[in-house]
Design goal:
It is a single chain. It contains 22 helices and 14 strands. Strands 3-2-1-4-5-6 form a six-stranded parallel beta sheet, sandwiched between helices. A six-stranded parallel beta sheet has the order 11-10-9-12-13-14. Helix 14 packs across helix 16 and helix 17 crosses helix 18. The termini are far apart.
Amino acid sequence: MQMKVCVIGTGYVGLVTGVCLAEIGHDVICVDNDNLKIEKLRNGIIPIYEPGLDELVKRNLENKNLSFTTDISVAIKSQDIIFICVGTPPRPDGSADLQYVEEVAKQIGINLNDYKIVVNKSTVPIGSGDWVSMIINDSIKTNSNLDKNNNKNNNNNSISSNINDHKFNLNKGNLNNSINKNNLSKKFDVVSNPEFLREGSAILDTFFPDRIVLGSSSKDAIDIMKKLYAPIINQTFNLPEKIYKVANINSSDNINFDNHFHNNPHNNLDNNLDNKNFDKNFKVIPVVETDLVSAEMIKYAANSFLATKISFINEIANICEKAGADITKVAYGIGLDSRIGPKFLNAGIGWGGSCFPKDVSALTKIAAEYGISTQLLNAVINVNTGQRHKVVQKVQEVLKIVKGKYIGVLGVAFKPNTDDTRDAPSITIMNNLINLGAKIKAYDPIVKIVPESLNPKAVFCASVEEVFEGSDLVILTTEWEEFKKLDFQSLGSIMREKNIIDGRNFLDKEKLLSMGYNYLGIGR
């Protein structure tokens, strides 16, 4: 069943969401107020780096399932399900800035012509679903044109977001097919549908999610959203083989194949699964149906827990260094416990990006509003911050005098398979070393524009060889797969001193030691 979807905001979440919904057959209009960005997207030019996304954009533009516009009014009025996917950046105090969500909610109220489902996809604080409903209702009431139309068509001027007394024909694309439009011209429901996308694996995470969370006070709205996601929930879509190859959907390290692939007639990946043991029966994607507030909390709690796991293993790594233990062996040993699991137990220089820092800080601010002290989450943040400084301390221990030394940095993005440098640990480390007088040379396979947050004294190199040449020390800060395959033997010969700090425990320690490198990892 094709549904008519409007996605407001073509940032990371909005663009991926819109494109993937178009891929499973829906009619999707993506809206943004950036004219240049929209023009590029119309021509298949993607503003972000995400494996597989450019292929899906071009494919669905050709299929006419996907379009881009700057006209928010037309998009809202013509579509039935409205996704809010605008940014919620952190304020200086760590709380979420909701000005863009508020503006979109006002626009929805102004342009509401039929029953709509309004979906909060942006990560928003607890209680934002009810707040968005209030903004939409207030916008409707204060809009004179809509008020006139409402008085003309409906003697009852009260506005309600409860539509449980109406029956929907869910086999039709238009949500209003079986509804008296005169009675529903001002009505809507809000659904919280948090995203759990990992940058670099967003296509995979959209089509093969661990779960889909739907929160609303309306059972009808949740049922409609389940229809929207039905091809993903039941795994009945059929992606082109090329997408599997370019979107990192070919490794058992990246996906729970037991749940998503066994006996699925719509894929041919059995030869790529590395002797994985499968369940006998294919499982559909779990759907969590809940209220608005619980759905909003699930998002914050999930990211905060993962951040906690990383900070925990980093703190254990620091103890391992002092005690002479190897954190890689310790992490492997505890990860085999099914209650703990192996994921997010990789010790290193800590987490960054746009999600973990923002969401953990926002949750502490939400808790403070209720008079709750988040001692554990505060410690998680402190450990993560300290992890970056420990790398600087290691540099000082090796070089003694940092001033005037040449230090190479491998990787600028906060993680591999993305060009995102927001709150990247590499930038904090480079800025601190520059402040100590070091000469910094950096290379990243994808990031080619110097981030504004990076000291302009840092030099971006066009090749790995430039990073190593004449350097007194090299730090690996992003675990790009190509770095594991470097010819360290020849690269070492062009260094001034063969010192390397593996900030992700990614490289082969014994091999580097055998080549004469002074190797330092994290917790080993």
